[in-house]
Amino acid sequence: MSRLEATKRLVRRWLRSIPFFIVLGLALGVGISVLVIPRPNIATINISGPFLSQAYTDEILDTLQYARESNNIKGVILRIDSPGGGASATEQIYLDILRLRQKKPVVVSIGTIAASGGYYIAVASNFIYAEPTSQIGSIGAFVSIPQPEELDENIGTTGPFKATGGSRRKVMGHLEMVRQEFIDVVRSQRGDRLQLSEEELSRGEIHVGVEALRFGLIDEIGTRTAAFEKATSLAGLRNYGVVEFQLKTQTRTWSFGPSDLADLKSQTGLMPKYYYLHFESR
Amino acid sequence: MIKRIVIVIIGIIVVVLGRGFFFYSGFYTSPPSEITSYENIVVPPAPTVEFSDNVSDNISDNISEEKRSVLIDLAHENNFEVEELNVLMLRLISRGFNIKFLDAEDDLKKELLGEEEEEEITEEEPLEEEEEITQEEGPPGEEEEITEEEPLEEPSEEAKKEEVEVDKEKEDDEEEEEEKLPPDAFIIVSPQLEFSDEDKETVEEFVEDGGKLLLIADPTRQSNINDISLEFGVIFESDYLYNLKENEINYRNIFITEFEENEITKNLKKIVLYVTGTISSDEGGLAFVDENTFSSVIESTKQLSPIALVEGEKVLGVHDLTFMTEPYNGILDNNQLIANIADWLIIPGEKEEEEEEAKPAEKG
Fold it and tell me: How many C-beta neighbours within 10 Å does residue B78 have?
């Protein structure tokens, strides 16, 4: 019997033995489990500065969509440091966070400020953390009232408000509707946790973290670490990886000062523009 | 063989479960979705009220036959457009009043007190001059031919023209005379420039002489109104009033339902002021905010008033201009308030001369 024959026999015996099938099962199990159960990740998305440009808004929305559709991402931490932005942008982000929350837990960690639209999007999450001195609130909106239409014989319109969309009073009426919407959003999302009346919410005040906790505007005082713990707990994770999304178009500054407001005013056209934005008027 | 396959499957399951237990401790259950009920978000329609401006008999009696006027200040970089006073001006015009404007180059004393160089007025004898003109310009000999008894022939075209010219001149002179008359009321809206000491004295003298003074400011407009209002003990506070509970589509558009009984507040049930502020004075508050209306600055329990009438009811302060403008004048009783202000402006105030005269007598 040659040595080759002996080896072949040994292999054949090994392939028929129980231990081989155990190893095979484990090996297959590893391969399949990696495919079936990928390593879960907690994604962090930093929303910083005012979201006024469509490019920035689109990037936030794309990231939220990716987080929702990705099988590897099991929870999301939104790090918010924003005074808000355009009403439309705010509502888009809010609604997308709500959709994301249906599939995965979303935990917000507020940094320096989550005011107006910044807070609007925060309430869509499962849980809100803030630091003791974070600035939270400024619930409300403002509108850039359109310039009166200048009649031009060379431009024909089919109705008196075709160019402006409505009278000045109508714009103020819409602003009131926008206010009601914001209040309803906060009340519906915060539910029994909220300790402020509609009138108190409408004041548009900024509260520091400890105060916001007392009023039920946030859930707990805590930092990003606490947010990770909460997100993993809600997602039911023991071990996880972290994926951090760096948004390219985000603005570096979180405040919206008088010069920014002046820029905004200069852009006022015929149509009104609504903002969920906290600004420093002086 | 089955035994071996089972072993493989068990191996796979063990690893998959192991990995699962390594990473996961449970499953995420999403909270119930709470979506805002957008269909419930509504805005009430504007509470407009039908209004017809009927000047009451009491007011009609006080309107004199001679043409009277109201002077509007435009000399102090006033922060408003004349069109914004259209509604008030129409009310005044319908009451037989003439509207005059004080421009930067005008002399306030001359315009307000009508103080002119009297000599010039007396020297001018327009009627005589007119006669002279007709005598001089008429064709020679024509006068002798025309007698009162004889029926006049059809006047020539030239004569007709002359007559028309004379009439025109008469009218012009009358108008000039009317223009020289001091106004009955003076309206100052959001002046940005300070009044000189002389101007302040002039305005005070005007009020002492029975003239009416309407001071209007608006928290949304830069103004230096207190420079002149302080002369009459009135302060336009640098605040705004707001009501978060009940308002006209915005917290800064406040309703007022509590009024002090007065000519200016007659027939008023509810008005809306569009961004108004407090007016502080020792007394004279005419319209008071309710318990849900607050000042952005003043933390006080006293009732705040954005309208005040002082100085023997001759000086009226109103801390809002918007309610006088279209379309806000048509909301609730705002038109009635504007009409009342117009009525108040045309009724002459009491002169203070008697008091001044009485004082030395008392001393003596």
Answer: 22
B242 CB-near residues (< 8 Å, 6+ apart): B251, B252, B254, B293, B294, B296
Q: How far is CA B238 from the centre of its chain?
A: 18
Residue A28 lies in a domain: no
How many structural domains does chain A have? 1
3-state secondary structure B217-244: CCCCCCCCCHHHHHHHCEEECCCCEEEC
As a whole number of angstroms, the distance between CA B81 and CA B85 comes to 8
Summarised one tens digit per residue, pLDDT across range A169-223 is: 888 899 999 999 999 999 999 999 999 999 999 999 999 999 999 999 999 999 9
Q: Which domains does chain B have, with CATH numbers?
A: 66-114+180-354 (3.40.50.880)
Cα of B52 to nearest chain A Cα, Å: 23
Pairwise CA distance, residues A117 & B279, whole Å: 36
How many angstroms separate the CA of residue A248 from the nearest CA in chain B?
30
- Please report whether residue A252 resides in a domain: yes
Q: Does B73 score more than 70 pLDDT? A: yes
Whether A139 contacts A116, CB under 8 Å: yes
User: Over the stretch B181-220, which tens digit does the pLDDT of each residue have?
Assistant: 789 999 999 999 999 999 999 999 999 999 999 999 999 9
Question: Three-state DSSP class for A17?
Answer: coil
CA atoms of A153 and A140, how far apart (whole Å): 39
Q: Say which of A29, A39, A185 has its CB closest to residue B13.
A: A29
**Does residue A213 fall inside a structural domain?**
yes
Nearest to B16 among A37, A102, A240 (CB): A37
Tell me how close the Cα of B253 comes to any Cα of chain A, in angstroms.
Answer: 10
Residue A170 lies in a domain: yes
Indicate the DSSP class of residue A51. B
Domain carrying residue A98:
38-277
The Cα–Cα gap between B73 and B197 comes to 16
- Residues found in chain A: 282
Q: Using the beta-carbon criterion (under 8 Å), do B36 and A203 form an inter-chain contact? A: no
Predicted complex ipTM: 0.80
How many Cα atoms sit within 13 Å of B142 on the Cβ side? 13
- Domain of A91, CATH number, reads 3.90.226.10
B25, closest residue in chain A (CA to CA) = A236
| B243: region left, alpha or beta (phi > 0 left; psi from -120 to 50 alpha) | beta
Query: Angle at the Cα of A263 (from A259 to A267), degrees rounded to 5?
Result: 165
**Secondary structure of residue B44 in the 3-state scheme:** coil
- Nearest by CB to B24, from A36, A191, A238: name it: A238
Q: Do B33 and A102 touch (CB under 8 A)?
A: yes
Please name the residue of chain A whose CA is at the shortest distance from the CA of residue B21: A238
| Exposure class string for A191-212: b at 16+ Cβ within 10 A, else e | eeebebeeeebbbbebbebeeb
